[in-house]
Design goal:
Largest sheet: 4 strands, antiparallel
CATH class of the largest domain: Alpha Beta
CATH architecture of the largest domain: 2-Layer Sandwich
Structural class: alpha+beta
GO molecular function: DNA binding
Number of strands: 10
Order of helices and strands: HHHHEEHEEHEEHEEHEE
Helix content: 40-55%
Subcellular location: Cytoplasm
Keywords: Cytoplasm, DNA-binding, Transcription, Transcription regulation
Distance between the termini: 14 Å
Pfam family, one: Transcrip_reg
InterPro entries: Integrase-like_N (IPR017856), TACO1_YebC-like_2nd/3rd_dom (IPR048300), TACO1_YebC_N (IPR049083), Transcrip_reg_TACO1-like (IPR002876), Transcrip_reg_TACO1-like_dom3 (IPR026564), Transcrip_reg_TACO1_YeeN (IPR026562), YebC-like (IPR029072)
Length: 240
């Protein structure tokens, strides 16, 4: 399971580098999380998760503060959480999570991105059963055995602990996200290379070289949509 995470994050970080797209999406996500509870991460666990994720993507403080100030004010934009599922080239599976204030805009845009790039939308549940909702938290400077000792000391159950490209990645149940982080903090670690709640595929499919460009075009088209927050898939390329 773990061997793919750093590859995924590295590609996404490279694509998002020096653009405002990822910051705008985080701005919406922070606003929505803050509006659902208190605009204080210490009393709003959902907001705390988003802020931890934003930190690992180097979202500027000004973006975060603007979203929090908006949530504290009188603004009342209504957003809906939506999930779309579909299929890409070579039997690949794709999950699209969106936050939207206009469902009539989002659904056709997602469907069009699939249809124009060799994919097709599926019904709810057609893909997600092949993915597991997972907390992923990573650090540097420790071994997997040392991290396991930290988790045992804090009595935190995890699914897996894997060393990947100089980092140690902990995979856990989503409701253990904060517990894993607190175990690290109790050991004096407060910087994370990864802090995500994500959907990891149970199995990967390989995309042959002649289909890679089409698949990447599909993912890019989905990620570029204004309302789309996250895109998950089960693809690995032949050269990985």
């Amino acid at each position: 399971m773990g061997r793919k995470w750093n590859n995924i994050k590295e590609k996404k970080a490279s694509k998002d580098a020096n653009t405002s797209r990822v910051y705008a999406k985080f701005g919406v996500e922070i606003y929505v999380a803050a509006k659902k509870g208190e605009p204080d991460p210490e009393s709003n666990r959902a907001l705390k998760v988003v802020l931890e994720r934003a930190k690992t993507y180097n979202v500027p403080k000004a973006i975060i503060d603007r979203a929090l100030d908006k949530a504290k004010g009188s603004a009342e934009e209504t957003y809906e959480d939506l999930r779309y599922e579909g299929f890409g080239p070579n039997g690949s599976m794709v999950i699209v999570d969106a936050l939207t204030n206009n469902v009539n805009r989002t659904a056709p845009a997602v469907r069009s991105a699939f249809n124009k790039n060799g994919g097709n939308m599926g019904v709810s549940g057609s893909v997600s059963y092949m993915f597991d909702s997972t907390a992923v938290i990573g650090i540097e400077g420790k071994t997997a055995d040392e991290v396991l000792e930290m988790m045992l000391e804090a009595d935190v159950d995890v699914r897996d602990i894997v060393e990947e490209d100089g980092s140690v990645i902990v995979y856990a149940e989503p409701d253990q996200f904060h517990e894993v982080q607190e175990a690290f903090r109790a050991a004096g670690i407060s910087e994370f290379t990864v802090a995500e709640l994500t959907m990891l595929p149970q199995n990967y499919v390989t995309i042959p070289e002649d289909s890679q460009a089409q698949f990447e075009k599909l993912i890019d088209a989905l990620e570029d949509l204004e309302d789309v927050q996250q895109v998950y898939h089960n693809v690995e390329f032949e050269d990985e």
